[in-house]
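=== RUN LOG ===
request id: a7f3
mode: sequence -> structure
chains: 1
length: 149
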Amino acid sequence: MDLQKRIAETEQALRATEREMVRLDAEAKILQNRVRINNDKDNSRIFENGIQREIKKAECDGLRIDRDALKKQLEHAAVPDKRTEHMRTALVPQHEVLAKLQLQLLLLRAKRNGITFPESTGTDAKLDAILKELAALRKEVQELKRGQK
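=== RESULT ===
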C-alpha cells in the first residue's frame, strides 16, 4: 500500500512538472514571436526559459525513472503472494494425511472407551452406521427430556 501511495505521489509530481514544461514552452513561443525594441531583454528571458525547460525536462525524466522503479517494487512485492499460494497448494496432500490420521486417532479413542463402529466398506454400511447413530441420539434425547421433567 505504501508503494502505491508513493507511485501516486510520483505521478502527481510528474504531471505537475509536465504542466510546468508546457507553460514554459508556451511562454518561450510567445517571447520568440514578440518583436520589441529591447531584444536583449527578451533574448535573456528566452535563454532563461530554455534553461528552466531543460531543468524541468531532467526532473520529469528523474520522476519517470522513480515511478518505474516504484512500480517494479510493487510488482516484486506481489510475488511473495504467488509463492505463498504455491506453498499453500503444496500443503494440501499433507492436510489430507493429517485428516486421515485424526480420523484414525478418533476411532482409536472411541474404541478405547468401548465404542465400536461397524466396518464401512460400502454405501449401505455407511448408511446403516448413520441410522444406528441417529437412533442412539434419539434415545439420548428422550432420556434427557425425561430427566428434565
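=== NOTES ===
The mean pLDDT is 79.
The first helix runs from residue 2 to 33.
=== END ===
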